[in-house]
Amino acid sequence: MSASVYIHPLTLVSGPQAVEGEAVRLGGSMAYAREFALVVREGGAVAERIVGTPRMIEAALARLSGALAEEGAEQWRNLAKSHAPLQLGSRTVRLDQPQVMGILNVTPDSFSDGGQHDQIEAGRAYAAAMLEAGAAIIDIGGESTRPGAAATFEDEEIRRVVPAVEYCASMGAAISVDTRRAGVLAAALSAGAHMANDVSALRYDPRSIELVATEGCPVVLMHAPGAGEDLHKGGDYADVVSEVFDFLKAARARAIDAGVAEDRIILDPGIGFGKSLAENLALINALPLFHALGSPLMLGASRKRMIGALSAEEPADRRLAGSLALAVKGMEAGVHLLRVHDVAETVQARNVWRGLRDAALTDFSTLPLA
């Protein structure tokens, strides 16, 4: 089995001046890392692990050879790669700060708010409230992907999604559509949507990858172990972090090979999809690693089952505090998009977090004296 390399950002700092300039800005975000672990895995096990500052990691990379050297150098470049804004209709969504994507479920059986917004007037009011609260993007979903959810036929999903796209478009919203079916995506784009969010990473429907390439719309590729009807099937990992990384790397390469523009791709580790509590926690702690793939990152952990597992089995509608904790963790890791149910509260948390980060970046008292 061939060896593979991974560069894990370990020590996150408030800004480069706090460490006399020896820090890497992760993915063009407001997150900075000073120490990294260069990990070489072979045969499913760690063969080598070197921890150090950027200069030490660069020296370690110089000692690699062949394909490992090329891959390591690319990951190192990607960690510091800045990403252009998303142009979604008339809205420009900058990716140099955390942005909030509001979830609009128009299904009768969503795990968190099933049936509350599937009627047009209720959905319209909820979408307007999210936009007013500061959502940069509205993500519309017409199929529940929770474990054990009943199958949704394409025609029914279109019937649910298109009216929601139309009323969100009438508000001037930037619109994402959470679907794994090409027919639904095509209908939504025609109705005014701008972006695809595919929980199967364009694997479920063979038509989807060509449609995304042809339309040129941004697309979120999410990790899920299942490629068929059950997205949660097959979640058996020896090392969940490296395996999800490898999956997203391959999904990204497949999309690019099919004609999807590199700067249109966003990656999501798929928290809660075919993963145990321990595996979800490992992925969230390892979020900074995924900048090494070279694409903007999205985190969808809002109200997920893991929060209930860590808090006396609280039901989905009582998981706000846990959702905010995970959102802040994502911001600290440099995640670009936070997909959430509770927009106003997350925007407030983001604004306070950004105020702290702005203050740290403009605080010159940590600089050494001349």
Describe this structure in words.
By secondary structure, the chain is α/β, with parallel strands linked by helices. The protein has two domains: 4-79, no CATH class; 86-357, TIM Barrel. Helices cover 37% and strands 19% of the residues. The protein is built from eleven helices and 14 strands. It has helices spanning 54-62, 66-79, 120-133, 154-170, 182-191, 208-215, 240-257, 277-285, 305-309, 320-332, 343-361; strands at 4-13, 24-25, 32-42, 45-52, 86-88, 91-93, 99-105, 137-141, 175-178, 195-198, 219-222, 265-268, 298-299, 337-340. The strands form three sheets. It has an eight-stranded parallel sheet. Strand 8, helix 4 (154-170) and strand 9 form a beta-alpha-beta unit. The longest helix has 19 residues, at 343-361. It is globular and about 60 Å long. The protein starts with a strand and ends in a 9-residue tail after the last helix. The model has no long low-confidence stretch (mean pLDDT 94).
Oligomerization state:
single chain
**How many angstroms does the end-to-end distance come to?**
53 Å
Q: In CATH terms, what is the architecture of the largest domain? A: Alpha-Beta Barrel
The 3D shape can be described as globular
How many helices does DSSP assign?
Answer: 11
The CATH homologous superfamily of the largest domain is termed Dihydropteroate synthase-like
Helicity level: 25-40%
DSSP E strands, number: 14
Content of β-strand: 15-25%
Please state the CA-atom Rg, rounded to the nearest Å.
20 Å
Low-pLDDT residue spans: none
Helix-strand topology string: EEEEHHEEEHEHEHEHEHEHEHHEH
Structural class: alpha/beta
Number of domains: 2
Let me know the largest β-sheet: 8 strands, parallel
The CATH C-level class name of the largest domain:
Alpha Beta
